[in-house]
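Protocol step 4 of 6: structure prediction from sequence.
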Amino acid sequence: MRKLVVTGVALAAVTSLSACGKSGYDRARPDEFAVARQAPLVIPPDFSLIPPQPGAARTQGTNTQGQTLEALFGTPAPRSQAEAGVVDQAGGDVAQPGIRSAVGDPQTNVIDKGQTTRDIIAAPQGDGQGARAVTGGAAGATQATAPSPAATPTPGATPQP
């Protein structure tokens, strides 16, 4: 038994040490840096460019912000006839230029629509099945619940007389 263990350990040592040898691995491989020849450096043509004069006007357009926006987002798409008609009917061509600064002005008239409008706007999104409305005063408040799903009409159904 002892002879078998010694033989197994010796065989494992020879097998593991054989990976360290270099016989058979010394073949010539191509050099990956020598495969492609590097092109020589070329001086670009002059194009007869002259340096700008100090204080002279720019030869390109002066709207750099517009050029930046055009490069990032492209030019605006033209409106279709239908879209242009809707915008014209809505008065899009007579928009007030300073409307954004006038909205927060203390002189702007604001209509208070009440708590109900605020509640509607702040209501969570959903199908409204769990909606509840409180009617009446705070002391004698009654709750009205949303109709059950069976009572809601289905689209395309005709009412029965």
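Step 5 (inspection) to follow. The first strand starts at residue 132 and ends at 135.
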